[in-house]
Amino acid sequence: MPASPTETSQPVTSASLAAGNASFPPLAGDELQLWRFPLPLPDSPLRRAVESLPNATEHARAGRLVFAADRLRQLHSRGLLRLLLGASLGHPPHSLRFVANPHGKPTLADAPELHFNLSHCHDRALIGLTRAAPIGVDVERIRPLADRDALIAHCFSPAEQAWLAGRLASSREPDFFRIWTAKEAVLKALGSGLATAPESLTIHLAENGDKCAGVDGAPGPWTLFTHSPEPAHVMTTAVRALLAPGRIRQFHLTDDACPAWMDNGTSVQQDTFHGNP
Asked: Which residues form the 4'-phosphopantetheinyl transferase domain (predicted)?
């Protein structure tokens, strides 16, 4: 299947999100919505609305974190997830009930057909929503890792190790995180997390203009979407279905108080990969 055209990110304001369901774009059954936010949220009506949404269990989980900024990031990410899910279903966000599978992946108790996933890395959050199939998302900051070689040896398949070793030294670090986020996203979409050995999967990324990718070791088909809203981060979404071209919609928060990277409507690197059935 050919790749989707380059996707753009649509800006939304905190005021419009805080206003209620009428301001949210509808989620069609065959599309993927990706929402990215700064963490913690800047002071705004949206922040105050979001902080009121997590339930007692979610507040308690956040309260166990040592640092205040981490507690806010946890609360804001959970509140944003409730806000988006409630808007997509037309239900009050605080009324949503979550259940977890044996590996801890949450689903909606009363709407299992709405698939979602959340990832946050320090001051970035990524939320994916779709009705098409199970989904996983992952966001990582590109950075040097003292144990990168050990991670490659223990978590990458032989084919991935060989591919990475053949890359230019200048691209090896971002390429490592492209594979890493894809693995994380696929494992989350499978619902097994690290109960499935990461090295049992092989991610085939697109090269030399080829816009097809594969996931060996996991039943498909798959759509993998990798993008970088700024050079220092990689975000990957995995959906266990072939999405039609153009059915990926991105949204980002735009306000005077938001970091400049949130207002960048285009990604530095955007690739849509469709795996083989």
From this structure: 134-224
- Percent of the chain at pLDDT exceeding 70: 85
Going by C-alpha positions, the residue among 254, 151, 272 that lies closest to residue 210 is 272
Distance of CA 244 to the CA centre of its chain: 19
Contact assessment for residue 37 and residue 83, using Cβ atoms and an 8 Å cutoff: no
Which pLDDT band, with edges at 50, 70 and 90, does 135 fall under?
Answer: very high
Please report the DSSP string for 38-103 in residue order: ESSPPSSHHHHHHHT-S-HHHHHHHHTSSSHHHHHHHHHHHHHHHHHHHHHHTS-GGG--EEE-TT
Inter-residue contact 229 to 35 (CB < 8 Å): no
Task: Please compute, for residue 250, the number of CA atoms within 13 A of its CA located in the half-sphere on the CB side.
Answer: 27
What is d(CA 27, CA 112) in angstroms, rounded to the nearest whole number? Answer: 15
B/e letters for 218-235, b = 16+ CB within 10 Å, e = fewer, are: bebbbbbbbbbbbeebbb
Enumerate the domain spans of the chain. 9-274
CATH dotted code for 9-274: 3.90.470.20
Cα of 94 vs its chain's centroid, Å = 22
- What span, in angstroms and rounded, lies between the C-alpha atoms of 144 and 128? 27
Average pLDDT of the residues in 33-60: 93
State which H helix or E strand residue 202 sits in.
Answer: strand 202-204
Beta bridge partners of 117: 128
Q: What does the chain come to in residues?
A: 277
